[in-house]
């Protein structure tokens, strides 16, 4: 009897940045690696979040033995509150990961029933009879990050998670290269390696270099009030800022809901260490001189509702930006966020502040490995097969090319997209049948209730506006008594009277074509014809395609 293949099922995180979710299936058992979300693009108006389609896992729920988490970033844990409602299986992660996950589950009222298991680096967990997972410390921009060494019935799968190789990490816990080398020497069947920064040559800088740059800012801006915007999850960055505040005799105020939540969680488990008298409430910063204040805030990506963006728009009542403020943007813009970030920077400059950002100073370093670091992992792991993950398609392609330059045969590398299933045996790797995968959109009304038609309508409304046509028709004679046309977000009515008059004539001409009473009963056909004729006319006049809503009301004379 032939041994079954190991199936590697990609439900997110390949061909895209975000919503990472990969399943390993062997026989009658499945384990899941990460369960993340993505944030909506400008092409998704009104959408709050995007999560992976987990319908394959839900349909095979009796096979799923657990979910293992590499780290606590939203693109790796953010979908769990939604997925666990449908698939309540054991979840495994480090103390920091669980500390940031628990409030999300509590908010969704599923924490009490969640089956959470905290692990330490070097811990080994057995999931079913076929999978054994070892958690291995790696350096990343959030504490408690891990790579995974997964023993399967046909060999070891090594998943790097998100990582970098930092020889001087702030918490003193470097990437465990010696353990990775031991695993590689014993033999690794398949490497799943993150690809985010494969296009960057050399090696990433240490987080400690940010501390040196920030030290210089504190020293040079001794009379100014200092703001630092950074990712809330970057606990090591926040620790460096707290240490600098202590050294330069500044009180610290935190701003932004996610920042407050992370600081509370990290302090509770000892990942952040500081004297309580260092912290002041954002409401009471007026009691302190500018030179004695540091404000650590969210908003490094220009998010419209973030604390920094509201400050830049002068809409944050607790803080007013002025000429004696210096704002440090301690983060790189995520691809697609550049316009938002630079828009905030421009507004801050207009308010008189000085702004320091990565383009001009080393106030941020990436948490993702550069090409030389990826090469080192390939050298240590020595995998037989390789699948690049965590990146857009160009990143995956470049990572595959890197592996081939290091001597791996192209036949041993597979590039995957959403829904792809890679079948791995001891001798070969190939693409098999696909499974259902793709984005599930989440907005205020729930999960998956927003279809493509709704998104298309929202885009039309946001870009081209709305035209509403109301027609009053005599129910007895079928004659048109009145026509009203209202617009929203389409044209300025006072300057477009001719346009609206002509539009009314078009509506009236459609009714003139239906002069028999029997025809007049077919209002659906009349409405469609009005929409068609108006659409052509309005586009010809304005080169815009507004949404057109037609209402016909029957009235007695």
Keywords:
25 strands; six-stranded mixed beta sheet; 557 residues; eight-stranded mixed beta sheet; globular; 25% strand; single chain; 31% helix; alpha/beta
Q: What overall geometry do the principal axes of the alpha carbons give?
A: globular
Task: Return the average pLDDT rounded to an integer.
Answer: 88
Poorly predicted regions are: none
Number of helices: 16
| Termini gap | 84 Å
Structure description:
With 557 residues, the protein is of the alpha/beta class. Helix content is 31%, strand content 25%. It contains 16 helices and 25 strands. The strands form five sheets. Strands 7-6-5-3-2-1-19-20 form an eight-stranded mixed β-sheet. A six-stranded mixed β-sheet has the order 8-9-10-11-12-18. Strands 14-15-13-16-17 form a five-stranded parallel β-sheet, sandwiched between helices. A hairpin with a 4-residue loop joins β19 and β20 (429-431). α6 runs parallel beside α7 and α14 (497-513) runs antiparallel to α16. The radius of gyration is 29 Å and the shape is globular. The model has no long low-confidence stretch (mean pLDDT 88).
Could you give a quick summary of the protein structure above?
This protein has 557 residues and is of the alpha/beta class. 31% of the residues lie in helices and 25% in strands.
């Amino acid at each position: 009897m032939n041994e079954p293949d190991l199936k590697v099922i990609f439900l997110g995180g390949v061909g895209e940045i975000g919503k990472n979710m990969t399943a390993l299936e062997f026989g009658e058992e499945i384990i899941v690696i990460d369960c993340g979300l993505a944030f909506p693009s400008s092409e998704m108006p009104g959408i709050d979040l995007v999560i992976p389609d987990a319908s394959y896992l839900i349909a095979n729920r009796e096979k799923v033995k657990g979910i293992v988490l590499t780290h606590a970033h939203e693109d790796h844990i953010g979908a769990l509150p939604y997925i666990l409602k449908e698939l309540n299986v054991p979840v495994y992660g480090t103390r920091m990961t669980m500390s940031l996950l628990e409030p999300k589950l509590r908010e969704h009222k599923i924490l009490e029933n969640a089956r959470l298991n905290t692990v330490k680096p070097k811990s080994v967990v057995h999931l079913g009879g076929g999978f054994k997972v070892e958690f291995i410390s790696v350096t990343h921009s959030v504490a408690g990050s891990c790579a995974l060494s997964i023993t399967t019935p046909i060999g070891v799968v090594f998943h790097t998670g998100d990582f970098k190789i930092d020889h001087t990490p702030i918490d003193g816990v470097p990437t465990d290269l010696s353990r990775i080398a031991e695993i590689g020497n014993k033999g690794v069947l398949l490497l799943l390696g993150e690809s985010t920064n494969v296009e960057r040559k050399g090696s990433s800088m240490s987080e400690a270099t940010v501390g040196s740059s920030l030290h210089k800012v504190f020293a040079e801006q001794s009379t100014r009030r200092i703001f630092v915007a950074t990712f809330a999850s970057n606990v090591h960055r926040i620790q460096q800022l707290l240490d600098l505040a202590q050294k330069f005799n500044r009180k610290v105020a935190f701003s932004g809901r996610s920042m407050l939540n992370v600081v509370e969680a990290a302090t509770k488990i000892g990942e952040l260490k500081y004297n309580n008298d260092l912290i002041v409430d954002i409401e009471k910063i007026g009691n302190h001189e500018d030179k004695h204040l540091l404000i650590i805030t969210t908003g490094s990506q220009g998010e419209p509702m973030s604390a920094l963006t509201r400050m830049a728009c002068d809409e944050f009542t607790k803080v007013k930006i002025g000429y004696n403020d210096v704002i440090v943007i301690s983060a790189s813009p995520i691809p697609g966020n550049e316009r938002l970030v630079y828009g905030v920077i421009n507004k801050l400059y207009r308010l008189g502040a000085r702004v320091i950002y990565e383009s001009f100073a080393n106030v941020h370093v990436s948490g993702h490995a550069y090409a030389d670091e990826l090469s080192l992992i390939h050298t240590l792991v020595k995998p037989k097969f390789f699948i690049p993950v965590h990146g857009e398609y160009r990143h995956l392609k470049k990572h595959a090319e890197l592996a081939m330059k290091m001597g791996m045969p192209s036949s041993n590398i597979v590039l995957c997209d959403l829904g792809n299933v890679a079948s791995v045996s001891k001798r070969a790797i190939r693409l098999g049948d696909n499974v259902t995968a793709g984005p599930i959109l989440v907005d205020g009304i729930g999960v998956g209730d927003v279809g493509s038609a709704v998104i298309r309508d929202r885009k039309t409304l946001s870009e081209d506006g709305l035209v509403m046509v109301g027609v009053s028709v005599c129910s007895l004679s079928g004659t048109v008594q009145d026509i009203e046309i209202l617009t929203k977000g389409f044209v300025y009515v006072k300057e477009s009277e001719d346009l609206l008059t002509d539009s009314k004539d078009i509506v009236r001409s459609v009714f003139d074509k239906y002069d028999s009473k029997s025809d007049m009963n077919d209002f659906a056909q009349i409405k469609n014809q009005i929409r068609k004729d108006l659409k052509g006319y309005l586009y010809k006049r304005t080169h815009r395609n507004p949404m057109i809503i037609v209402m016909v009301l029957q009235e007695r004379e």
